[in-house]
Design goal:
Strand content: 15-25%
Helix content: 25-40%
Number of helices: 11
Distance between the termini: 15 Å
Order of helices and strands: EHEHHEEHHEHEHEHEHHH
Radius of gyration: 17 Å
CATH class: Alpha Beta
Length: about 250
């Protein structure tokens, strides 16, 4: 099972939208078995897939529960082949609890949990909070790949050096198989000179950048209100084609 973390320390860059839509495309277009982990206390990925709840077990329990049974944590979604581990505000207190727990290893809880379902899924995608906390470190330790969504503005690469350092440190200390696949640009407007120049600037930096650009579309925001992945809500819009292309590009790496 390949495990992909979608992460950026900056908010508003389409981490959750990218995670949900890539997972959905892998399941529905490529016919893969996919597990999506919502690793953000806001629980937006859980909300988009209509599974947000304070009653069910989720990511907080993965972080804190001993003798974990993943069958009690994982929920099926409305899409064949796509399952989810949900999150809510309980993840905030779970992170604090883990940091105070000196009796068990703190950074490997995701990895041990995913070992239970290693043979059940082709891919796992982790939607991470815009932060480096113990649950995002757990995500990096459990991952094989990392992708960083970026929107073009004056602060586009803020925090990217720190994030890359965390990825490198995780690779050196805890997960030698971790690969930084690169950044991909979201909400791109080819008619906006700032976007075109910003994309060129990013591609000239030291970080790898995916060729696929996720175009800005007026369909994306209403798709979240409709609680539908973009290729279901608006299959002909540019972002639908772009996310399909991004998944293809990643799969060929």
């Amino acid at each position: 099972m390949k495990v992909l973390s979608i992460i950026n320390l900056k908010g508003g860059v389409a981490k959750t939208i990218s995670s949900v839509n890539m997972a959905h495309i892998l399941a529905t277009v490529h016919g893969c078995k996919v597990l999506l982990i919502d690793n953000d206390k806001q629980g937006n990925a859980s909300k988009i897939l209509n599974r947000h709840s304070y009653d069910n077990k989720g990511t907080a329990d993965v972080m804190t529960e001993r003798g974990l049974n993943m069958a009690e944590i994982i929920q099926h979604t409305d899409y064949d082949g796509l399952d989810i581990i949900t999150a809510n505000m309980k993840l905030l207190t779970a992170n604090l609890e883990v940091m105070l727990d000196q009796k068990r290893p703190q950074q490997t809880r995701f990895r041990k949990a995913l070992e239970q379902v290693q043979k059940e899924y082709d891919y796992c995608i982790i939607d991470n909070a815009p932060d480096i906390n113990i649950s995002t470190i757990n995500a990096l330790v459990a991952s094989t790949d990392v992708m960083v969504p970026i929107t073009i503005d004056d602060f586009a690469i803020d925090g990217l050096a720190e994030l890359k350092e965390q990825i490198d440190n995780t690779r050196e200390d805890l997960n030698p198989d971790l690969k930084f696949c690169g950044c991909f640009i979201t909400q791109y407007d080819r008619t906006n000179e700032a976007d075109t120049q910003g994309a060129e600037y990013l591609q000239a930096q030291q970080y790898p950048v995916f060729k696929t650009l996720i175009r800005r579309t007026p369909k994306m925001k209403p798709s979240t209100f409709a609680r539908e992945p973009i290729i279901d809500y608006s299959p002909r819009c540019g972002a639908s084609a772009d996310y399909k292309a991004l998944v293809e590009e990643w799969l060929k790496m």
